[in-house]
Write a structure and sequence with these properties.
Number of helices: 11
Oligomer: single chain
Mean pLDDT: 95
Low-confidence stretches: none
Helix content: 10-25%
Shape: globular
Largest sheet: 8 strands, mixed
Distance between the termini: 15 Å
Order of helices and strands: EEEHEHHEHEEEEHHEEHEHEHHEHEEE
Length: 313
């Protein structure tokens, strides 16, 4: 699994940061990617990546402020123009469907793929055999959701050297063993799954939060998460502005992560008042927390493998 930040700015785009959009790359798990928010010019940012819009499977909108949705019409149209015919589902607050429908109708943009728009409430908004996505309302100046994405437990590792030694042929029997079923070989030998597999592996949990003040629902969504993506629009010196406009400081984000017993924090949605040279000071304000903290930049990518989060570029 990888996280790719197409845009990490707050409010208006700047020369340093585009407006907000975060991608959860599930290419190994599903052959697709999911997007969280779609600020203005998100499709321009995609041009600097290897992402293919037709591989976009799900799009989650946190709230209806322009810096989180103004990129939607262009991306939806381009996905169709580029030959994407795979279904796309968009999740978000009440009002999202009307806004998209009107925008596409007035601009005479016709998408050629099945487009489903689901206006959500708190609770489980998606679940299949691989993942479960939960949404909770945060505390912003308008209805705004955060999302937790939990990968369900993975099948245990199959020890091929053991199955080979026991004479299990390559093919369907190996799949049955990996799924926890015992098998009978052609010679009558019974091979037990527990003899040739490891422990069931826990899946990952990623929490991606929209604009919010420090709040209890952020902590609940982030509980024991492997990665928390939390806005840090302001720093400790501008904390009053954060409270006034329904945002968080980088310290608020770190407090959420700590109180949720989460493992890694990536801060995004940075105010344009902060230049690249200011980021080291922001990180200094949270250096005492006992987990890795990153301030993401546009087009930065992070990989999560074997329980470790690593910045790729």
């Amino acid at each position: 699994m990888q996280l790719l930040f197409l845009g990490t700015g707050a409010g208006m785009p700047s020369k340093q940061r585009n407006t907000t959009s975060t991608v959860l790359k599930l290419l190994e798990e599903r052959g697709t990617f999911w997007m969280f928010d779609c600020g203005e010019a998100t499709q321009h940012q995609i041009l600097h990546t290897t992402l293919k819009p037709r591989k976009l499977e799900k799009l989650f909108i946190t709230h209806l402020h322009g810096d989180h949705i103004y990129g939607l019409p262009g991306l939806l149209g381009s996905r169709s123009f580029l030959g994407g015919d795979e279904p796309l589902t968009i999740y978000g607050p009440t009002g999202l469907k009307n806004w998209i429908d009107v925008t596409l109708a007035v601009s005479k943009t016709h998408v050629k793929y099945p487009l489903t728009i689901i206006e959500i409430e708190e609770g489980i908004v998606f679940e299949d055999e691989q993942f479960i996505v939960e949404a909770k309302l945060l505390e912003h100046v308008m209805p705004c959701y955060g999302y937790s994405v939990k990968q369900k437990a993975l099948a245990p590792e199959l020890y091929i050297e053991k199955t080979d030694a026991l004479g299990v042929p390559r093919g369907p029997l190996l799949r049955q063993l990996k799924e926890g079923n015992d098998v009978v070989l052609s010679n009558g030998t019974i091979v037990k799954s527990e003899e040739v597999t490891g422990e069931v592996r826990e899946g990952f949990k990623v929490t991606i939060l929209g604009d919010t003040k420090y709040c209890e629902n952020s902590i609940q969504l982030s509980e024991k998460a492997d990665i928390v993506v939390h806005e840090g629009t302001f720093d400790i010196e501008t904390a009053e502005l954060a409270r006034l406009y329904g945002h968080s400081t980088i310290v608020d984000a770190a407090e959420v992560c700590q109180n949720a017993d989460a493992k890694n924090l990536v801060v995004n949605h940075i105010s344009a008042r902060f230049l690249s040279s200011d980021l080291s000071n922001m990180l200094t304000q949270v250096k005492h927390y006992p987990f890795p903290i990153y301030i993401s930049e546009d087009l930065a990518e992070y990989s999560f493998v074997n329980g470790l989060l690593t910045k790729c570029k």
